[in-house]
Amino acid sequence: MMSIWIIAKQELKLMTRSRWIPSFALLFTTLAVTIVYFSGMNTEAGYDGFTRMTGSLLNLSLFLIPLVTLLTGSSFIAGEKEDGGFSLLLTYALPPRKILIGKYIGMLIALASVIFLGYGLAGVILLLQHGSISTTLFLLFVFFTLLLTMMFLAVAICIGVISTNRFEALGFSLVVWATLVLFYEFGIVGLITFVDRSFVLPIITVSTLFNPVEIIRVWTILMMNSGEIFGPTLYDFTVWAQGMIGNIAFSSAMTLWIISPLILANLFVKKGIRNE
Fold first, then answer.
1. How far apart are CA 188 and CA 88, in angstroms?
2. How many CB atoms neighbour CB 266 within 10 A?
3. DSSP assigned state of 81
4. Labelling 231: which of 21, 166, 182, 217 has CA 20 to 30 A away?
5. Residue 164: its pLDDT value, please?
6. How many CB atoms lie within 10 A of CB 146?
């Protein structure tokens, strides 16, 4: 455990020294504060149900967090492979899984600090504007944004491991981001239009669990008690998702999105060691 923490601290130090984290912090905080400030001037106190402001903040997280997490995580791992630092770590008496877990923890701490900063300042703005905020919904936003980061960071590390250089890692990351964030939903909508109505709910259920962006989008809205925005057509899906089985399914899917890429990355690293 101590060796994992040592690697995590080293990774955190490298992350904070790079340009990625300060740039991400500035961009995310600026956008979050801007959304809250201008939305708060025209609406009721923020973080109170699914309002225009909470919807905008959710979209900010769903678009920006996956992109930055994928680019940062994959380029750091691929960069260390390219520079020889990753190979040097593998010569130590440490299992590859401990190295990957240490790097994962270090990167997660760096990215989480940005999320706390952005939403923290946004919360302060709301408090100054309205005198109070919904602490529960505020923490809910932070929690689900962290879950989104955890899932995409695991994917980013896997991309970094299978990539041979930074350029390749960035290319893979952009393809994954565009697929999951931009094109996935359009593909599902297109598929639904060609199938019988009896298949609509099963397709929506499965497609939601197979995409970390959709997991967080749907789960956040449901936890805000705003499932009615899905409309009467998806009433059965909403009831299922809000129930115990639905929450277990969401939790299991999220856990698999974190564990599976890390296991795959570990297997690729071991395969690389055997081939040397």
1. 44
2. 20
3. H
4. 182
5. 87
6. 17
N-term to C-term CA, the chain: 27
- 181 DSSP 8-state letter: I
The CB-side HSE value for 50 (13 A sphere, CA atoms) comes to 17
Angle at 230 between CA 228 and CA 236, to 5 degrees: 85
d(CA 77, CA 161): 6
Classify each residue of 181-207 as buried b or exposed e, where b means 16 or more C-beta atoms within 10 Å of its C-beta: beebeeebeeeeeeeeeeebbeebbeb
Please report, as a single letter, which amino acid is at residue 271.
K
CA distances 227 to 79, 101, 148, 172, 246, Å, are 43, 36, 20, 34, 13
Per the structure block, which two tokens stand in for 109? 């701490």
Q: Which parts of the chain sit beneath pLDDT 50?
A: 45-47, 274-276
Tokens in use for 260?
């599976």
Place of tokens 């979209």: 59
The first and second tokens of residue 219, run together, are 């789960």
* Amino acid 212: pLDDT: 96
Predicted confidence at residue 267, as pLDDT, reads 93
Q: Locate tokens 């340009």: which residue?
A: 19
Nearest to 133, CA basis, from 211, 54, 208: 54
pLDDT of residue 175: 96
